[in-house]
């Protein structure tokens, strides 16, 4: 399948207009403050871009970022503006034609930005261990509608775990399915190249992430995908696809469930683009100035990552109160005893 992907993205596609679905190309949900970054990027780079929106978490200044499947370099050059002169962005891609576009316009972007802080490397995502990338060397790793194209997704996840610094984050957008894709669809070169038939069943993704050491994958946002090409829709049948953004933190102490330790955080409102509320994920919208109860994992994600200076932290993990209420998992036992605290006390 690697040959199929290289041919599809290197030779079959000449611009975003050649895509047959919206699976790999949508900027409708891009924040307004990010859109001006695109105005500084060369038109050739933009026209050969095939990803999903712009994968861009907050607080990037000074960070070292790895972009997996960087293609023509659009996301690399956008992120380069956000990390600034003290940061660095490395793009890895296996397609010669895409890398040629990215490198051809590198000097243009140096003149535009006033600094040179990007590197492009040819390589396979399944073989990142063969590249000159040091362990624990990246603050953030991103990818944009690329993991679904990988032929060994477990190898990719293992390398991401190895390359991230402690407290680092894998922040990425990709395509997922509501069921496992049958082999005859996986073997279809157009369906695969369009980021559909290589998509993981969403539950298999969470298993894969946890197997790589990312015990608490957090869904940031998602949207259903419409298969607009009639021929492809007929092949797909009733399978439903979704574009989704996840964030995975490399934090050793994370647990495989949301445990309640009586902890809370207060967001200071100090992240520039989020003065009123910080959205950690789809279910954690943390309003500035308010005491916000959190599970132990959320507490650690904020305390042991680059977000720590922007929060106050209340409590520790010395006490345990069971599963954190509302985190999607319930105790399996029937509860026949009412706690005294729920009765207002007893004498």
Can you describe this structure?
The protein is an alpha/beta fold. It has helices at about 1-10, 35-40, 45, 75-85, 95-105, 105-115, 155-165, 185, 190-195, 200-210, 230-235, 295-305, 340-345; strands at about 65-70, 90-95, 120, 140-145, 165-175, 200, 220-225, 240-250, 265, 275-280, 285, 290-295, 310-315. The strands form three sheets. Strands 1, 2, 3, 4, 5, 6, 7 and 8 form an eight-stranded mixed sheet that branches. Helix 4 links the parallel strand 1 and strand 2 (about 90-95). It starts with a helix and ends with a helix. Mean pLDDT is about 90; it is low at about 10-15.
Number of helices: 13
Poorly predicted regions are 8-15
Distance between the termini: 71 Å
What characteristic shape results from the CA principal axes? globular
Give the SSE order as H and E letters. HHHEHEHHEEHEHHEHEHEEEEEHEH
Decide which structural class fits the backbone: alpha/beta
For the largest beta-sheet, the strand count, sense and barrel status come to: 8 strands, mixed
Count of DSSP strands: 13
State Rg: 22 Å
Question: Residue share in helices?
Answer: 25-40%
Mean pLDDT: 90
Name the beta content range.
Answer: 15-25%
């Amino acid at each position: 399948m690697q040959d199929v992907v290289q041919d599809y993205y290197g030779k079959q596609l000449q611009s975003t207009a050649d895509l047959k679905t919206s699976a790999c190309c949508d900027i409708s949900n891009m924040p307004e403050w990010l859109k001006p970054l695109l105005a500084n990027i060369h038109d050739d780079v933009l026209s050969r871009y095939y990803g999903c929106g712009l994968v861009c978490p907050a607080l990037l200044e000074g960070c070292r970022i790895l972009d997996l499947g960087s293609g023509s370099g659009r996301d690399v050059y956008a992120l380069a503006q956000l990390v600034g002169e003290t940061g660095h962005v490395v793009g890895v891609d296996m397609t010669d034609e895409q890398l040629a576009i990215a490198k051809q316009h590198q000097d243009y972007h140096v003149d535009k930005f006033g600094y040179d802080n990007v590197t492009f490397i040819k390589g396979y995502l399944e073989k990142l261990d063969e590249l000159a990338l040091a362990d624990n060397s990246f603050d953030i790793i991103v990818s944009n509608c690329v993991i679904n194209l990988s032929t060994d997704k477990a190898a990719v996840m293992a390398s991401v775990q190895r390359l991230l610094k402690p407290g680092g984050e894998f922040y990425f957008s990709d395509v997922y399915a509501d069921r496992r894709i049958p082999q005859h669809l996986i073997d279809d070169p157009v369906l695969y190249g369009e980021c559909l038939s290589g998509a993981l069943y969403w539950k298999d993704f969470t298993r894969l992430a946890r197997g790589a050491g990312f015990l608490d994958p957090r869904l940031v946002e998602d949207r259903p995908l419409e298969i607009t090409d009639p021929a492809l829709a007929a092949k797909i049948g009733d399978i439903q696809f979704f574009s989704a953004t996840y964030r995975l933190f490399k934090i050793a102490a994370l647990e495989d469930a949301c445990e309640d330790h009586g902890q809370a955080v207060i967001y200071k409102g100090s992240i520039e683009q989020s003065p009123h509320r910080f959205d950690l994920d789809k279910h954690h919208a943390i309003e500035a100035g308010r005491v916000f109860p959190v599970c132990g994992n959320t507490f650690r994600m904020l305390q042991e990552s680059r977000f720590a200076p922007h929060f106050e932290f209340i409590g520790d993990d010395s006490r345990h109160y069971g599963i954190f209420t509302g985190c999607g998992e319930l105790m399996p036992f029937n509860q026949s005893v009412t706690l005294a605290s729920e009765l207002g006390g007893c004498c």
